[in-house]
Amino acid sequence: MKAQAGGVYTVYNRYLKCYTACQVAYIAPPDTVSRESWAVILSLDWAGDAPLTAEELPHLRPLYIDFMYWSRDLHLLRVPVEVPPRYKLVGILPPFTDQPCHSYGGWNDGYDVYLQIRWQAIPEERRRAFKEAMESDEQTEIGGIPLKVSSHRVMDKYTPFDSALELEALPCLSDLICERWHPDLLEFLRGNPFLDELTLLNHGQRTLDLRGTSIRKLMLDMTGLQELWLGEGTEQLLFQNKGPDACTIHAPEDGGGLTLQFIGEYHPHTELPNLWGLHGIELKDFDLTRLAAVHPHLKELRLWGAPGNLGNFSAVRGFRELTNLSTFDLFGFGADDIPTPEQMPELRWFWMTSLPETAAKAAKQLWKGKAGMDLRITKPRKPEWLAQNLGNPFRGWDGAEHIPVSAARKAANQYRKTRSQLMKLAAEPGEDAQAQAQALDAVAAYTQTSNKMGFIETEERDEIYMALRGILDALPDNTLQKDALIEKFEQLRDF
Q: Distance (Å, rounded) from C-alpha 37 to C-alpha 39?
């Protein structure tokens, strides 16, 4: 179903546990972001226990948002013109606005309405203090460090406070990063309705109770943690350490509103049968067997490889309620493992990037043309590519719009050549001075190859450095002078 200007739609909001509404203000033409037209949607100031009805249309008004750092204004968003099936057309009204919109996003089920209602539930005095501090140029001191009262982010590494209660001097604080435990941290968190994001590392706690806090996004070191209670509004839990944890996680509705992200390995959390989303990053070998039995109501599954192999990908068919599925740099599966629309009837967002060629072809054939489907299957990889590139740190350059194919190939070839040369020199050094001189020449050739590439920006510069660093880290100790090789690289590079 294509969006139509003036159309009013209603949709269920899982955060509010009620229905919200929006209007398509107008249809915007294609632009530099997309060749397709855009639907510009306007959030409406309405929420109800049942879907919006035609009889209620004359009473609708646009929603003005002013939560957190937003200045009071209409909430407009450019979204794909195809309306998701979960949105129901109620009727047509003259558009409330034709205000230009330069923000892009997706049909978000009225999430902004939820955030505005959440904001309005905070006492007015606290909200007013937040807004006043946001506009202030005044300074205060935390742990002897001068900070603007408008500061919204604090790291205890750089602002070493003795007591977390000192942070009450920052009315706008919404993001806190702690690399050690503070005994009064929980007291501060429960008294701050604006603290949205918390990163907690090296805390040394066996139990942690975050109920009564406002945290929506929690980045947590799981080392040694045995029991965790999440806050009522926590939407994301991102593990900060690799490997499986041994923690029991208590979440509202058994994880019904929670997305969990792990690194490398996952210990299935059977105590979260209603988990909404599961994200895995830096995967080398990951098996989907029995995962659907642990999280039968999962709505979103996103997996990023290191790159890696995805075992028993066909088991994804067990997620009958899944709406969003994506993989990146994952292999080890083929055409027969791709689910069909009949097997996954709720799937609406299906992205796979850098995957086996046979699987890519099957995914396109099976899912192309399904109504309401956001399908993106890109960077299919032939077996020859996999053989050559699974150990290639520049594999992401292949297919990048701003990087010539020849440059991606040249970078990969030079990497393999440099790695081979340095490994050989480290294994059979001969005379130390001679080996070091040859190693310096190898690094010089590596650097000069990169110097000739005119497209290098910050991301590519970091990748070139980290690729060389990875080679050196793999060398046996006490063979080549690694610091001198890095120094040579820094001296010669002009990017």
A: 7
